[in-house]
TrEMBL record:
GO MF annotations, alphabetized: beta-1,4-mannosylglycoprotein 4-beta-N-acetylglucosaminyltransferase activity
Gene Ontology process terms (BP): N-acetylglucosamine metabolic process
Keyword Transmembrane helix: yes
Species per Swiss-Prot/TrEMBL record: Gossypium tomentosum
Protein name (record): Beta-1,4-mannosyl-glycoprotein 4-beta-N-acetylglucosaminyltransferase
Gene Ontology cellular component list: membrane
The keyword Zinc is assigned to this record: no
InterPro entries in UniProt: Glyco_trans_17
Amino acid sequence: MSGGYSNSKKTDDIYEKVCGQASFAALTMSRLRCMLRGIDIRICIVLLIAIPVFMFGIYLHGQKITYFLRPLWESPPKPFHEIPHYYNENVTMERLCHLHGWKVRESPRRVFDAVLFNNEIDILALRWNELSPYVTQFVLLESNSTFTSLLKPLLFAGNRHQFKFVEPRLTYGMIGGRFKKGENPFVEEAYQRVALDQLLRIAGIEEDDLLTMSDVDEIPSGHTINLLRWCDDIPPVIHLQLRNYLYSFEYHVDNKSWRASVHRYKPGKTRYAHYRQSDIILFDSGWHCSFCFRYVSEFIFKMKAYSHTDRVRFPHYLNPKRIQDVICKGADLFDMLPEEYTFKEIIGKMGPIPHSYSAVHLPAYLLNNAEKYKYLLPGNCRRESG
């Protein structure tokens, strides 16, 4: 009995001597051993491996995690009041106005179509040919700077000869960039939109003229603009719901594009903007074809130039081979999750966009020039390098 007690006491004495003494040598040599006393070494190894792997995973996929959890920290916007859209080429304008609850005018309003131009030459041609029969004045502002303060050529000025059919009705302006590196890109974007307000006044816009506000790739259908210019009592500001496409008209994402809008111009009050300005939206009013470029080089330029440049998180995103593969798969250029407000919508849209082989109800100019714009039609995902 005493022997057993002596052995236990001896062990305690040794521990006291090693872990309890104040000598510098003892503390230095054995502190780690005391700290780890009773801890399984296998747990330490697992933690040493798991923690770096976890941190690297956050670095790679942190943005995806944030977007997936969006329903937890952001509520969906207030729903639009949707106006049903009636149209058939064999129905009179008087009847169409009546179906929408409006009266027909004795003469149509003047229409001004105003855009900020970056590098979308082909899409601009589709837009202006679609709207040409109904637009009084085309207004285009071009800068030698991207929203991210990159120097860019004046592409419209260099290709102006392609648009002789609108030349008598064109008000063109050029604005020099401020080139403030590190500034929020939306500040430069707002600066250019303010300049577009001034260009509209130079173009001669007057009270109650119709003004379309949309990016070049947000194309209202011609019959939509014709309806709004002929009908009385339309809302002062009405958003246009557009069919949303990515890369070409082969990849139909959804019908949720809403930023395009039409305004009954009010001097001193109407300001050119690209955000929600009304609760009213006219359904099925055109097409939004985002990143619909002919050349891979144009994709790279847009990815570096537009306001969401922070989405290019890794240099390999700009690799031409990767971009071509992404286009043909219908995947996301920035490897992002869908920007939705419910888990159901996020999960439902995850993965590549399904291919659509419908070319029905597309801009007439596109179909009449299908050979030239073949890359925008179903079954033609391969792009030229540029």
